[in-house]
């Protein structure tokens, strides 16, 4: 059982996206103190200096305790604060308000006011407006009555008569008397009470015409009108006054005769005094007192009407009064002559009445005490604190009354002297019972006082503990762990530590309250059920809070693990991308010439990178292992499409459902973030807080991140390996080129050991690199050729060093140099022709261009160039012509070599572009084929969600493949740069433009695909919400329609059914017919939502169709599969058409069935009428036959 507490006013404001907590608290204070004179709260500093705001808040909740007028006009600021503190026991807050009135501190004031709000949240705020409104309505009604009565009796047009006087007299006795009491009640109970509590408050504003002064003036006007009306009527009824005078004269005569008779009896009693005779005379004189008073009243009436005999009648009546008094005095003189033991009959009757009254009072007091004992014994204790407070306050008053009853008991004891001696024992028995019961009542009342006080204190303390637990429970239950990205995990860690510390500190106080309840149970407190309820509730809520802390710890650890994991993944991804960019730049540089020093520097950089790669490889393995323990927190916030398994993190008890820690349940519905619907063992479904469940690993999104990271790592490793091999190749190639550049003179100058060691090391490095490369790798082939050429040149130099000098070296140099120059010119023309040719557009053309470039490569001329240089070195004294010839050959060789290398780079760039185009085409064809498979938007919600999930996967794949198109655009730009370098005299490169156009076309197709995916996601997300609303409304209305149709179909026409059942059927039909109009709006809502989905689906289908047609127009051979038979918007339109048809036909079906029932009932009534007439006819015939039989029998009896 969850304990509900009052939420702070600022919590609701924050949920609506409104003010801050501080502003919410200020708004609450302004609402409470609205209307109080002198109170204007607009901040938490200067507005509280005078102390009025604190008293205004307390007065708003308990106006009976705070005298606002005195606080406002007679107290100083410090006195007002002390007055507020003096009332804290009544308001149940245990803190002392200590504010510096000259310089209030905002922080402390905010804390005081927040604590004051928490203390007052359990109190009900009196509704002053209702009390004032009740007084206004009552006063308005009373004022209207006075105005009508005054207007009625001020009207003198009525004909005067005795009946009017009688009516006025009756009006005085009945209505005027009742209304006078009502007027006094309004003056004392309503206005004075409200004025005392609500003076100087704007809420108490009563119109002048409803004030007691105004009502009193109207009352006086009414009395004046009555008197004037009576006077006006009194002068015109002379005939009635004469009749009154005659009757008065007659009654005076009769009374005189009675007094004469009593005088005779008194004179006789003087001679023979006896008790009985004197009693009879006194009784007779007392009996004449009332008639004589009536005579005085009649005389006053005659006097008010100025009757001529009024004074005479007054003298006669006054004489009767004096005679009666004189006769009574004479009787007293007679009684004084009697002995002292005489007790008159009147006195005896008085004593008897006194005795009866005393005994009756004692019995009533005994009954009252017994009734109180019974009430206290059967007192039922409430579990609500407000009820207990009311019971305690009421019992305080009752206890005071019980204690004051002691005076009544003592009075009963004192009256024992008034009891005759013969009744003293009986009265003592009554007194003994009264004292015994009263002693029991006092003891019981005192015990109940203690019980209520202890129970109230315990319940109040228990509720405070439960509220403290509830505040933290609400925070934990409503926390959204699915939005872990926006969670402040460091703050949550501090909060968890603070919460555990608070629980540790609070545990002692909680145990004290719990022990207090247990002590009350051990003392056998009468409110056992209430105490057991709170004790059990406290224990359950405390266990629940501890369970929530376990959930908080697990979810916090999961969030921290996932956050650290994603942070590590991001760091790895950033490092991988940076290194890939570096390796890409190195790849671009390796197509340029690099010397040995540059190669060694780059190799050192690559080795450092390899060490980091090994370290990050271990990080990837660690991330893979960590990913197996990560809970998919994001899945807590997304609605599931299929059931998944969840694990309970703590014990949970609700009604008959008991979930233990580590129990496995099946999650059915998580549309509500706070409460999930799960299935337990045995197929039992129930709802429980989502915080107690954990979705077990693995996390699919984490797996996608790892897969993306692994792809980056593999790409980086591949680039690293390519760069490492290429740079090593360049370093070895540069060294081999240096070896090949040795002439015989340089060769002979070198130390043989160093020279042989260098060549041996080069061979070892080259063979090692060849072992790492594939045999078909172009680098492997080129390195092998260069190594062979270098070794051949080295061995040739060895042979030349061992051979004798050739005398014909000058002639050989001239001849071979000129021949080589011709070959270089021919190669230059061939190379320029290949450069001028259009770039390859296909892979076959690229292979052909590559083979041609290799076939006409300069490797074959390299040995001749080395030979020319060697011959030149052998010339001891070369001539200037020979030097110029060598320089011409070397210049032509360098130009040819540089241009050939740039052409090779162009061919390599063409390869990258062609490869990128092929890969891009494959990607585009696959996506276009996939995009066109969804030829319509389905009307099934699960299919729509599956489409949304698939499109999300496609979108993630597109993000990963975006790099292909970015690289393709970059490669086209590089190709243009390489070609422009080789074609320096050409301004426009049409072949490059064609390739650029192809790439642009692919880019446009790619952008169309990306736009299609985003557009479809938006349309599907919009349509999903519309479809959910439509299906919900459609299912409700369709269920109602099926129920009504089934009800109509179940109504059968059968001769065995009585008319009452048919009448019930008819009433049921008409009730359903009336419901049709009420359901019209709901049906229109179904059609509106269905129409919205149809429009969304048509828009989706139209865009799919347009995109599909554009693809078919570009590539007619592309196949997408068959179209679906029924689109979503057609299915919804068909369902709506069928639904509307059934709804429209329902009214006619109901009316038709009603007509059938009515026709049958009319037929039934006709048949019943015919049957009744036949029965009556048979009865008549029967009566006739019986009459004839009786007549015949009578005749036989008379005439046998």
From TrEMBL:
Keywords assigned by UniProt, alphabetized: Coiled coil, Phosphoprotein, Repeat
Domain of life: Eukaryota
Record-linked Pfam families: CH, SH3_10, Spectrin_4
InterPro entries the UniProt entry points to: CH_dom (IPR001715), CH_dom_sf (IPR036872), Desmoplakin_SH3 (IPR041615), PCN-like_spectrin-like_rpt (IPR049538), Plakin (IPR043197), Spectrin/alpha-actinin (IPR018159)
Stretches assigned to coiled coil: 245-272, 599-626
Gene Ontology BP annotations: cytoplasmic microtubule organization; intermediate filament cytoskeleton organization; wound healing
One of the record's GO cellular component terms: cytoplasm
A GO term, aspect molecular function: structural molecule activity
Residue intervals of the Calponin-homology (CH) domain: 19-124
Keyword rRNA-binding found: no
UniProt name for this protein: Calponin-homology (CH) domain-containing protein
Lineage of the species this protein comes from: Eukaryota, Metazoa, Ecdysozoa, Nematoda, Enoplea
